[in-house]
Amino acid sequence: MLEPPPRHVSLSERLRAHLAIARLDHSIKNLFVLPGVIVPLSVSPALFTSKLLVTLLLAFISVTLVACSNYVINEVLDAPFDRLHPTKRNRPAALGLVNIPAAYAQWLLMMVAGVAIGLTISRMFALVALVLWIMGCLYNFPPIRTKDVPYLDVLTESINNPLRMLLGWYAVTSVLVPPVSLLIAYWMLGCYFMGLKRFSELSEIGDRSVAGAYRASFKRYTPESLLVSVLFYASTAMLFLGAFIIRYRIELILGFPLVAFTMAIYLKLAFKHDSAVQNPEKLYREPLLMASFAATALVMGLLLFIRMPRLEIFFTPTLPSTTPAVVEAAPISTPQHLPGTIARTLIKL
What we know:
By secondary structure, the chain is an all-alpha fold. 62% of the residues lie in helices and 0% in strands. α2 packs across α7 (160-172), α3 packs parallel to α5 and α5 (123-140) runs antiparallel to α7. The protein has two domains: 6-174, Tetracycline Repressor, domain 2 (Orthogonal Bundle), CATH 1.10.357.140; 179-316. It contains 14 helices and no strands. The protein has helices at 11-20, 34-43, 50-82, 100-119, 123-140, 152-158, 160-172, 180-205, 208-214, 223-247, 256-269, 287-303, 309-314, 340-348. The termini are far apart.
Protein backbone atom coordinates (compact mmCIF):
# COMPACT_ATOMS: atom_id res chain seq x y z
CA MET A 1 0.00 0.00 0.00
CA LEU A 2 1.19 3.49 -0.80
CA GLU A 3 2.80 5.46 2.02
CA PRO A 4 2.24 9.22 2.23
CA PRO A 5 5.19 11.27 0.92
CA PRO A 6 7.49 12.34 3.79
CA ARG A 7 7.24 15.97 4.78
CA HIS A 8 7.98 18.17 7.76
CA VAL A 9 5.15 18.25 10.28
CA SER A 10 5.12 21.11 12.78
CA LEU A 11 4.48 20.44 16.47
CA SER A 12 1.13 22.24 16.43
CA GLU A 13 0.05 20.25 13.38
CA ARG A 14 1.14 17.04 15.09
CA LEU A 15 -0.80 17.90 18.26
CA ARG A 16 -3.93 18.69 16.26
CA ALA A 17 -3.56 15.35 14.46
CA HIS A 18 -3.32 13.44 17.75
CA LEU A 19 -6.36 15.25 19.08
CA ALA A 20 -8.26 14.49 15.87
CA ILE A 21 -7.61 10.74 15.97
CA ALA A 22 -9.28 10.58 19.38
CA ARG A 23 -12.48 11.59 17.51
CA LEU A 24 -14.04 13.57 20.32
CA ASP A 25 -16.81 14.50 17.90
CA HIS A 26 -17.92 10.85 18.13
CA SER A 27 -18.72 11.38 21.82
CA ILE A 28 -22.33 11.84 20.71
CA LYS A 29 -22.45 8.02 20.66
CA ASN A 30 -22.14 8.07 24.43
CA LEU A 31 -25.83 8.99 24.48
CA PHE A 32 -26.32 5.22 24.15
CA VAL A 33 -25.42 5.14 27.86
CA LEU A 34 -28.64 6.97 28.78
CA PRO A 35 -31.11 4.05 28.55
CA GLY A 36 -28.92 2.24 31.06
CA VAL A 37 -29.36 5.23 33.37
CA ILE A 38 -33.07 5.83 32.86
CA VAL A 39 -34.37 2.24 33.15
CA PRO A 40 -33.10 1.53 36.69
CA LEU A 41 -34.23 5.00 37.80
CA SER A 42 -37.73 4.21 36.50
CA VAL A 43 -37.74 1.08 38.66
CA SER A 44 -36.29 2.76 41.75
CA PRO A 45 -36.54 6.58 41.66
CA ALA A 46 -34.85 6.72 45.08
CA LEU A 47 -31.58 5.99 43.28
CA PHE A 48 -31.61 9.55 41.95
CA THR A 49 -29.54 11.69 44.31
CA SER A 50 -27.31 14.73 44.04
CA LYS A 51 -24.33 12.38 44.29
CA LEU A 52 -25.56 10.52 41.21
CA LEU A 53 -25.07 13.63 39.07
CA VAL A 54 -21.37 13.67 39.95
CA THR A 55 -21.15 9.94 39.31
CA LEU A 56 -22.74 10.32 35.89
CA LEU A 57 -20.28 13.06 34.99
CA LEU A 58 -17.39 10.79 35.95
CA ALA A 59 -19.00 7.94 34.02
CA PHE A 60 -19.26 10.09 30.90
CA ILE A 61 -15.59 11.05 31.16
CA SER A 62 -14.59 7.42 31.70
CA VAL A 63 -16.61 6.12 28.74
CA THR A 64 -15.32 8.91 26.52
CA LEU A 65 -11.68 8.15 27.37
CA VAL A 66 -12.07 4.41 26.73
CA ALA A 67 -13.97 4.99 23.48
CA CYS A 68 -11.39 7.54 22.32
CA SER A 69 -8.64 5.01 23.09
CA ASN A 70 -10.37 2.59 20.71
CA TYR A 71 -10.67 5.30 18.06
CA VAL A 72 -6.95 6.07 18.30
CA ILE A 73 -5.88 2.49 17.63
CA ASN A 74 -8.51 2.17 14.93
CA GLU A 75 -7.10 5.19 13.13
CA VAL A 76 -3.51 3.98 13.43
CA LEU A 77 -4.13 0.42 12.26
CA ASP A 78 -6.54 1.47 9.51
CA ALA A 79 -4.28 4.14 8.00
CA PRO A 80 -2.98 1.93 5.15
CA PHE A 81 -6.55 0.99 4.21
CA ASP A 82 -7.96 4.50 4.65
CA ARG A 83 -5.58 5.72 1.94
CA LEU A 84 -7.65 3.67 -0.50
CA HIS A 85 -10.93 5.31 0.54
CA PRO A 86 -12.17 8.39 -1.36
CA THR A 87 -12.74 10.46 1.79
CA LYS A 88 -11.02 8.64 4.67
CA ARG A 89 -7.67 9.08 2.94
CA ASN A 90 -7.74 12.60 4.39
CA ARG A 91 -7.64 11.34 7.97
CA PRO A 92 -4.58 12.47 9.97
CA ALA A 93 -2.99 9.01 10.28
CA ALA A 94 -3.54 8.27 6.59
CA LEU A 95 -1.85 11.57 5.73
CA GLY A 96 1.18 10.69 7.88
CA LEU A 97 0.58 13.45 10.41
CA VAL A 98 0.55 11.11 13.40
CA ASN A 99 3.61 9.96 15.32
CA ILE A 100 2.96 6.21 15.62
CA PRO A 101 4.86 5.49 18.89
CA ALA A 102 3.17 8.50 20.50
CA ALA A 103 -0.20 7.26 19.21
CA TYR A 104 0.31 3.89 20.91
CA ALA A 105 1.16 5.68 24.15
CA GLN A 106 -1.94 7.84 23.71
CA TRP A 107 -4.03 4.70 23.17
CA LEU A 108 -2.83 3.06 26.40
CA LEU A 109 -2.91 6.18 28.57
CA MET A 110 -6.49 7.01 27.61
CA MET A 111 -7.57 3.47 28.46
CA VAL A 112 -5.78 3.47 31.82
CA ALA A 113 -7.24 6.86 32.72
CA GLY A 114 -10.75 5.79 31.69
CA VAL A 115 -10.69 2.53 33.65
CA ALA A 116 -9.10 4.25 36.67
CA ILE A 117 -11.91 6.80 36.76
CA GLY A 118 -14.35 3.91 36.39
CA LEU A 119 -12.92 2.29 39.52
CA THR A 120 -14.00 5.35 41.51
CA ILE A 121 -17.57 4.54 40.49
CA SER A 122 -17.64 0.75 41.03
CA ARG A 123 -15.75 -2.40 40.17
CA MET A 124 -18.50 -3.54 37.82
CA PHE A 125 -18.40 -0.23 35.98
CA ALA A 126 -14.61 -0.46 35.59
CA LEU A 127 -14.87 -4.08 34.44
CA VAL A 128 -17.40 -3.24 31.73
CA ALA A 129 -15.24 -0.27 30.65
CA LEU A 130 -12.29 -2.64 30.32
CA VAL A 131 -14.41 -5.08 28.27
CA LEU A 132 -15.38 -2.18 26.00
CA TRP A 133 -11.68 -1.51 25.42
CA ILE A 134 -10.90 -5.21 24.86
CA MET A 135 -13.64 -5.43 22.24
CA GLY A 136 -11.93 -2.53 20.45
CA CYS A 137 -8.70 -4.56 20.44
CA LEU A 138 -10.44 -7.64 19.04
CA TYR A 139 -12.07 -5.48 16.38
CA ASN A 140 -8.83 -3.85 15.24
CA PHE A 141 -5.82 -6.04 15.96
CA PRO A 142 -4.69 -8.94 13.77
CA PRO A 143 -4.80 -11.89 13.69
CA ILE A 144 -8.35 -11.76 15.05
CA ARG A 145 -9.34 -8.34 13.64
CA THR A 146 -13.06 -9.05 13.53
CA LYS A 147 -13.70 -5.99 11.37
CA ASP A 148 -12.35 -8.01 8.41
CA VAL A 149 -14.84 -10.88 8.88
CA PRO A 150 -18.30 -10.48 7.30
CA TYR A 151 -21.17 -10.27 9.81
CA LEU A 152 -18.75 -10.74 12.73
CA ASP A 153 -17.60 -7.18 12.08
CA VAL A 154 -21.12 -5.86 12.62
CA LEU A 155 -21.80 -8.09 15.63
CA THR A 156 -18.58 -7.20 17.47
CA GLU A 157 -18.74 -3.49 16.70
CA SER A 158 -22.36 -3.30 17.82
CA ILE A 159 -21.71 -5.11 21.10
CA ASN A 160 -20.57 -1.66 22.23
CA ASN A 161 -24.27 -0.72 22.44
CA PRO A 162 -25.21 -3.07 25.32
CA LEU A 163 -21.81 -2.42 26.90
CA ARG A 164 -22.58 1.29 26.97
CA MET A 165 -26.00 0.50 28.42
CA LEU A 166 -24.34 -1.56 31.14
CA LEU A 167 -21.98 1.33 31.89
CA GLY A 168 -24.97 3.59 32.41
CA TRP A 169 -26.65 0.92 34.51
CA TYR A 170 -23.68 0.33 36.81
CA ALA A 171 -23.18 4.06 37.19
CA VAL A 172 -26.62 4.12 38.80
CA THR A 173 -26.81 0.82 40.67
CA SER A 174 -24.92 -2.37 41.36
CA VAL A 175 -27.94 -4.03 42.97
CA LEU A 176 -30.53 -4.24 40.20
CA VAL A 177 -29.80 -6.73 37.40
CA PRO A 178 -30.30 -5.48 33.81
CA PRO A 179 -32.84 -7.52 31.76
CA VAL A 180 -31.16 -9.76 29.18
CA SER A 181 -34.00 -9.12 26.71
CA LEU A 182 -33.27 -5.39 26.76
CA LEU A 183 -29.53 -5.92 26.30
CA ILE A 184 -30.07 -8.21 23.29
CA ALA A 185 -32.57 -5.78 21.76
CA TYR A 186 -30.06 -2.96 22.18
CA TRP A 187 -27.32 -5.08 20.63
CA MET A 188 -29.40 -6.03 17.60
CA LEU A 189 -30.55 -2.45 17.15
CA GLY A 190 -26.89 -1.45 16.97
CA CYS A 191 -26.36 -4.20 14.39
CA TYR A 192 -29.22 -2.74 12.36
CA PHE A 193 -27.55 0.67 12.26
CA MET A 194 -24.10 -0.78 11.58
CA GLY A 195 -25.42 -3.07 8.84
CA LEU A 196 -26.94 -0.08 7.07
CA LYS A 197 -23.66 1.79 7.45
CA ARG A 198 -21.87 -1.06 5.69
CA PHE A 199 -24.54 -1.12 2.98
CA SER A 200 -24.22 2.61 2.41
CA GLU A 201 -20.40 2.45 2.29
CA LEU A 202 -20.38 -0.43 -0.19
CA SER A 203 -22.96 1.25 -2.41
CA GLU A 204 -21.05 4.53 -2.30
CA ILE A 205 -17.71 2.99 -3.36
CA GLY A 206 -19.37 0.96 -6.09
CA ASP A 207 -16.29 -0.86 -7.36
CA ARG A 208 -16.12 -4.19 -5.51
CA SER A 209 -12.36 -4.54 -5.97
CA VAL A 210 -11.72 -1.06 -4.55
CA ALA A 211 -14.16 -1.73 -1.69
CA GLY A 212 -12.48 -5.06 -0.92
CA ALA A 213 -9.04 -3.44 -0.83
CA TYR A 214 -10.31 -0.81 1.62
CA ARG A 215 -12.25 -3.22 3.87
CA ALA A 216 -11.62 -6.97 3.70
CA SER A 217 -15.20 -7.86 4.69
CA PHE A 218 -16.45 -6.11 1.53
CA LYS A 219 -14.87 -8.89 -0.53
CA ARG A 220 -17.71 -11.15 0.59
CA TYR A 221 -20.49 -8.66 1.22
CA THR A 222 -22.98 -7.65 -1.45
CA PRO A 223 -25.67 -4.96 -1.15
CA GLU A 224 -28.28 -7.72 -1.19
CA SER A 225 -26.64 -9.78 1.56
CA LEU A 226 -26.26 -6.68 3.73
CA LEU A 227 -29.93 -5.77 3.36
CA VAL A 228 -30.94 -9.32 4.23
CA SER A 229 -28.79 -9.17 7.36
CA VAL A 230 -30.31 -5.79 8.24
CA LEU A 231 -33.77 -7.38 8.10
CA PHE A 232 -32.56 -10.11 10.46
CA TYR A 233 -31.10 -7.59 12.91
CA ALA A 234 -34.25 -5.45 12.88
CA SER A 235 -36.54 -8.46 13.40
CA THR A 236 -34.44 -9.80 16.26
CA ALA A 237 -34.20 -6.39 17.90
CA MET A 238 -37.97 -5.93 17.82
CA LEU A 239 -38.58 -9.47 19.07
CA PHE A 240 -36.50 -8.90 22.19
CA LEU A 241 -37.74 -5.35 22.66
CA GLY A 242 -41.26 -6.77 22.59
CA ALA A 243 -40.26 -9.39 25.16
CA PHE A 244 -38.92 -6.65 27.44
CA ILE A 245 -42.04 -4.52 26.97
CA ILE A 246 -44.47 -7.36 27.71
CA ARG A 247 -42.45 -8.59 30.67
CA TYR A 248 -41.55 -5.30 32.35
CA ARG A 249 -43.20 -2.17 30.90
CA ILE A 250 -46.31 -2.75 28.79
CA GLU A 251 -46.76 1.04 28.53
CA LEU A 252 -43.76 1.22 26.18
CA ILE A 253 -45.85 -0.44 23.49
CA LEU A 254 -47.45 2.96 22.88
CA GLY A 255 -44.09 4.33 21.76
CA PHE A 256 -43.32 1.46 19.42
CA PRO A 257 -44.70 3.22 16.28
CA LEU A 258 -42.13 5.98 16.86
CA VAL A 259 -39.35 3.40 17.14
CA ALA A 260 -40.43 1.83 13.85
CA PHE A 261 -40.75 5.23 12.17
CA THR A 262 -37.22 6.24 13.23
CA MET A 263 -35.82 2.96 11.91
CA ALA A 264 -37.65 3.48 8.62
CA ILE A 265 -36.18 6.98 8.21
CA TYR A 266 -32.70 5.59 8.89
CA LEU A 267 -33.22 2.89 6.26
CA LYS A 268 -34.20 5.48 3.68
CA LEU A 269 -31.14 7.60 4.48
CA ALA A 270 -28.86 4.63 3.76
CA PHE A 271 -29.82 4.87 0.06
CA LYS A 272 -28.76 8.51 -0.24
CA HIS A 273 -25.55 9.55 -1.97
CA ASP A 274 -22.84 10.49 0.54
CA SER A 275 -25.25 9.49 3.29
CA ALA A 276 -24.74 10.60 6.87
CA VAL A 277 -25.37 6.95 7.77
CA GLN A 278 -21.71 6.37 6.85
CA ASN A 279 -20.66 8.92 9.48
CA PRO A 280 -23.13 8.70 12.38
CA GLU A 281 -21.56 11.72 14.08
CA LYS A 282 -23.02 13.80 11.21
CA LEU A 283 -26.59 12.53 11.59
CA TYR A 284 -27.53 15.79 13.31
CA ARG A 285 -27.67 17.25 9.80
CA GLU A 286 -30.78 15.18 9.08
CA PRO A 287 -33.65 17.19 10.64
CA LEU A 288 -36.40 14.61 10.12
CA LEU A 289 -34.32 11.85 11.69
CA MET A 290 -33.32 14.06 14.60
CA ALA A 291 -36.92 15.12 15.22
CA SER A 292 -38.12 11.52 15.10
CA PHE A 293 -35.28 10.33 17.33
CA ALA A 294 -35.94 13.10 19.88
CA ALA A 295 -39.67 12.34 19.93
CA THR A 296 -38.97 8.61 20.34
CA ALA A 297 -36.52 9.16 23.19
CA LEU A 298 -38.86 11.59 24.94
CA VAL A 299 -41.97 9.41 24.65
CA MET A 300 -40.22 6.16 25.59
CA GLY A 301 -38.50 7.90 28.51
CA LEU A 302 -41.79 9.26 29.84
CA LEU A 303 -43.58 5.95 29.41
CA LEU A 304 -40.99 4.29 31.65
CA PHE A 305 -42.33 6.38 34.54
CA ILE A 306 -46.05 6.05 33.76
CA ARG A 307 -48.24 3.16 34.84
CA MET A 308 -51.44 2.32 32.92
CA PRO A 309 -53.26 -0.58 34.63
CA ARG A 310 -56.04 -0.58 32.03
CA LEU A 311 -53.46 -1.16 29.31
CA GLU A 312 -52.27 -4.25 31.18
CA ILE A 313 -55.85 -5.50 31.37
CA PHE A 314 -56.25 -4.93 27.62
CA PHE A 315 -53.28 -7.22 26.96
CA THR A 316 -54.32 -9.90 29.45
CA PRO A 317 -53.85 -13.38 27.86
CA THR A 318 -57.13 -14.78 26.50
CA LEU A 319 -55.97 -18.23 25.42
CA PRO A 320 -55.96 -21.12 27.91
CA SER A 321 -52.63 -21.75 29.57
CA THR A 322 -50.59 -24.70 28.31
CA THR A 323 -48.81 -25.04 31.66
CA PRO A 324 -49.90 -28.25 33.42
CA ALA A 325 -51.94 -27.59 36.50
CA VAL A 326 -50.23 -28.26 39.82
CA VAL A 327 -51.91 -31.13 41.63
CA GLU A 328 -51.74 -31.10 45.38
CA ALA A 329 -50.46 -34.42 46.64
CA ALA A 330 -51.93 -36.07 49.68
CA PRO A 331 -49.67 -36.09 52.72
CA ILE A 332 -47.39 -39.05 52.80
CA SER A 333 -45.07 -40.39 55.37
CA THR A 334 -41.44 -39.73 54.60
CA PRO A 335 -38.95 -42.50 55.20
CA GLN A 336 -36.59 -41.42 57.92
CA HIS A 337 -33.50 -42.68 56.13
CA LEU A 338 -33.96 -40.45 53.04
CA PRO A 339 -31.90 -37.24 52.89
CA GLY A 340 -33.88 -34.10 53.60
CA THR A 341 -33.59 -32.69 50.08
CA ILE A 342 -34.86 -35.90 48.47
CA ALA A 343 -37.64 -36.13 50.99
CA ARG A 344 -38.79 -32.60 50.29
CA THR A 345 -38.65 -33.33 46.56
CA LEU A 346 -40.86 -36.37 46.98
CA ILE A 347 -43.36 -34.32 48.93
CA LYS A 348 -43.46 -31.68 46.18
CA LEU A 349 -43.93 -34.35 43.54
